[in-house]
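Progress report, Aim 2. The chain analyzed during this reporting quarter is listed below.
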Amino acid sequence: MLASKLQQTTAQNAQQKQVGTAAESVQASGRTAQSGVPVTVSKSVRSLGEGSKTTSDVDTAKVQAMREAIANGTFKVNAGAIADKLLTDASMFLGAARA
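Predicted structure tokens for the chain:
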């Protein structure tokens, strides 16, 4: 059983290496894929990949401030705000599921 699991994992890893990621496909635009099929990507799709490199969804200053507060022992968790956000998200999720 262990040998078959190892073979399956090895086969999956080999398949993942062959397929690659979407980002690699975007970078490969204009080049020929391993199977010999030409790959082209529109300018709008390429611009999506470029935009993600320059912008960040993470406020690094806020993260640093939180790290310092945790290290100093002054970080306070606002349980009420977290609960409100969880309830709002759950409500939106359930509403979308019903629609």
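The radius of gyration is 23 Å. The chain has two domains: 22-55, 59-99. These observations will guide the mutagenesis work planned for the next reporting period.
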